[in-house]
Write a structure and sequence with these properties.
There is one protein chain. The chain is an alpha/beta fold. It has one domain (2-302): 3-Layer(aba) Sandwich (Rossmann fold), CATH 3.40.50. 30% of the residues lie in helices and 16% in strands. The chain has helices spanning 2-17, 99-107, 128-138, 140-146, 163-169, 204-209, 214-218, 226-231, 256-264, 288-302, and strands at 54-57, 66-70, 78-84, 111-115, 149-159, 188-192, 243-248, 268-273. The protein has an eight-stranded mixed beta sheet, with helices on both faces. The longest helix is centred in the N-terminal third of the chain and has 16 residues, at 2-17. The protein starts with a helix and ends with a helix.
C-alpha cells in the first residue's frame, strides 16, 4: 500500500505530462461538501458505510472469491452496479475501499455487488484473476434469483486497476476461454481514475505501483501476448455498453485519441476531471471530488 500512497504524487506529475482532452464540465454540485480530508488506500477504509446485505461466495477456488451485496430498501427491482476495487492488481486495495461508495449508491436506489478476486501475490495473474472477474460478474444471474435486481440495468464500475475488468467485461469477450459462463448484458461503464487499456501503461505501472505488475498480470509483454492486450483495449475490443463515464483524477489522463475512437464507435463518452492530486477522494461522499461526480454516477446507474 505504501507504494500506492507514494504513487499519488508521482501520478499527478505524470498526468501533467500527458495529453489532455477538453473535459466535460463537472455536473452541478448538488451534494454538499462536508469533508475536506484527503484519503489514501488505508484511510478510505475507515469511512463510515452500511454493512452489506449479504457477503456471498461466488466460487470455491479461493477465499478471495466472494462479493458484498447491498440491496436498497423497498420492493425493487433495482438497477445494479457491479464494483471492482483497485490496488495495482497486486493486493494493495480491497472491497473496503468501495464500501462508502457502495453504501451511497444503495441509499439512492441502486443495488451494488462488489466482488473480490485473486491478484498478484494471492494466486492471481493470468488466467485466475480474469476468471474471477468474469465469474464474479456472471454470478449476478444467480443473485437475481433471490434478490430484486433488474438485470436489464447493469452498470460496471471500476476504481484504478478495477477499471480493467469493468471495461473488458463490458465487451462480452470470452478471453482465451477464461470466461466459461454466460455474462449478463451491460448497459454502461464507469472508469474511476484507471487506465482504459493496459498496453500503454506498461512501464508507467512500475513507477506508480512500485514494481512491474501489468506484464505479470497478463502473462507477458504486449509483444509476447498481443491478443490479450488487444482484448483489454476497448478500441480493438469495443464495449457493448452505450455509455462510458471517465473520471480523471491523479493517474495519467485518458488518451484523447482513444476517447475519440470510442465515440466513433457510437459510445456516449463523458469525462469529468476532478483533483489531479487525489486518487481516493472520489470514493468518499462529502468530498469535493465526490460531489463533482455523484450526479453523473446516479444518472448513469439509474437511467432506463
Amino acid at each position: 500500500m505504501r507504494h500506492l500512497v507514494r504513487a499519488t504524487a508521482l501520478a499527478a506529475t505524470l498526468a501533467a505530462c500527458a495529453p489532455v482532452e477538453p473535459a466535460a464540465e463537472a455536473p452541478a454540485a448538488t451534494f454538499a461538501v462536508t469533508d475536506t480530508a484527503n484519503y489514501d488506500p488505508v484511510s478510505v477504509n475507515t469511512v463510515p458505510s452500511d454493512p452489506p446485505t449479504a457477503r456471498i461466495a461466488y466460487g470455491s477456488a479461493s477465499a478471495r472469491q466472494y462479493g458484498e451485496l447491498r440491496v436498497p430498501k423497498g420492493k425493487g427491482p433495482f438497477p445494479l452496479a457491479v464494483l471492482w476495487h483497485g490496488g495495482c492488481w497486486a493486493g494493495m486495495g480491497g472491497t473496503a475501499n468501495l464500501a462508502a461508495l457502495a453504501s451511497f449508491l444503495a441509499q439512492n436506489g441502486i443495488a451494488t455487488w462488489s466482488p473480490s478476486y485473486r491478484e498478484l501475490g494471492s494466486d492471481g495473474g493470468w488466467p485466475n484473476t480474469f476468471t474471477d472477474w468474469a465469474q464474479g460478474l456472471g454470478y449476478v444471474n444467480t443473485l437475481a434469483r433471490d434478490y430484486p435486481l433488474d438485470l436489464s440495468r447493469i452498470t460496471l464500475m471500476g476504481h484504478s486497476s478495477g477499471v480493467t475488468p469493468a471495461v473488458w467485461l463490458a465487451s462480452g469477450d470470452k478471453g482465451d476461454a477464461v470466461v466459461t459462463g454466460e455474462l449478463p448484458k451491460v448497459r454502461a461503464v464507469v472508469a474511476l481514475d484507471g487506465p482504459l487499456a493496459l498496453g500503454a501503461f506498461v512501464g508507467v505501472d512500475a513507477a506508480i505501483c512500485g514494481e512491474p505488475v501489468i506484464a505479470p498480470l497478463v502473462g507477458g509483454s504486449p509483444a509476447e501476448q498481443p491478443g490479450r492486450y488487444a482484448m483489454l483495449d476497448p478500441v480493438t475490443n469495443p464495449p457493448l455498453a452505450k455509455r462510458l463515464l471517465v473520471v480523471d483524477g491523479a493517474l495519467p489522463d485518458p488518451d484523447p485519441a482513444k476517447l475519440a475512437a470510442l465515440r466513433g464507435q457510437g459510445i456516449a463518452v463523458e469525462v469529468i476531471r476532478v483533483s489531479q492530486e487525489q486518487h481516493f477522494n472520489m470514493l468518499v461522499p462529502g468530498t469535493a471530488d465526490f460531489a463533482a461526480i455523484a450526479p453523473a454516477l446516479l444518472d448513469i446507474a439509474k437511467a432506463r
